[in-house]
Amino acid sequence: MGQTDLSRPLGRDGGWAEAEPPCGNAAHAELPVRPYDLLTLALCHALRLVWALLGLRRAAGMLRHYLRGTGSAYRVDAEELLALPAVRAAAGEQLERWRAEALERWRSGPHAPAAYPADSGWRDVLITRRVSTDWWLALRCAEFRLTGTVRVDAEGGTAVDYRFAVQKAWNFDRGGSELGVPFTPFARLHETGLAREFTVKGEAFGHA
């Protein structure tokens, strides 16, 4: 039987222990509604319909959830997200790091079968328009965390079982912008109670 390494998990250096908290916008419904907030709200409803007609279902779904104002968590298909080249590359880099660190520990030991716990910590991954217009509009960036186990056999072969978790505080950062479009009017929808920020979550499991 193999032995399990109970020391510090592989690959943790550089990752965060906790996912990034929501941005520093005003609290929900803290500000009074102004006439231009109602115009922004109408624009968002129209934009959601346009996105839906264009087949941008993820972007339309998340904007709809924001406008519904429940604040409940929104689940995404993490396997679809993991299939994006940028996300797959970021996750693959962590898995290769796990393998390298596991082999380094294994070589310094008795060369018997062994298992090593691994944890990437929370890390950022950027999703651009070139990767996917739908996911870019839906998330722009996200945080992911890989946890799992690397098993090394007696000959030095490796196998990895992992859990891929994704999380994002979905909001419009007051003062931010994208392509020259300011986010503050959209952030005000949350701040005035016309919409509500929420957390995006998802998970997938794999073997490599």
Terminal CA distance: 21 Å
The assigned structural class equals alpha+beta
Overall strand count = 9
**Percent range for β-strand residues:** 25-35%
Q: Which stretches of 5+ consecutive residues score pLDDT under 50?
A: none
Order of helices and strands: EHHEHHEEHEEEEHE
Mean pLDDT: 93
Count of DSSP helices?
A: 6
Q: Give the overall shape, derived from the CA principal axes.
A: elongated
Percent in helix:
25-40%
Rg over C-alpha atoms, rounded to the nearest angstrom: 21 Å
Main sheet: strands, sense, barrel: 7 strands, mixed
Entry keywords:
alpha+beta; 25% strand; 35% helix; 208 residues; elongated; single chain
Summarize the topology.
Blueprint: E1 3-4, H1 35-53, H2 57-68, E2 74-75, H3 78-82, H4 85-107, E3 114-119, E4 123-126, H5 133-138, E5 141-152, E6 158-170, E7 177-178, E8 181-182, H6 184-191, E9 198-207
Parallel strand pairs: 1-3, 2-9
Antiparallel strand pairs: 3-5, 4-5, 5-6, 6-9, 7-8
What report would you give on this structure?
The relative contact order is 0.25. The chain has 208 residues and is of the alpha+beta class. It has helices at residues 35-53, 57-68, 78-82, 85-107, 133-138, 184-191; strands at residues 3-4, 74-75, 114-119, 123-126, 141-152, 158-170, 177-178, 181-182, 198-207. It is built from six helices and nine strands, in the order E-H-H-E-H-H-E-E-H-E-E-E-E-H-E.
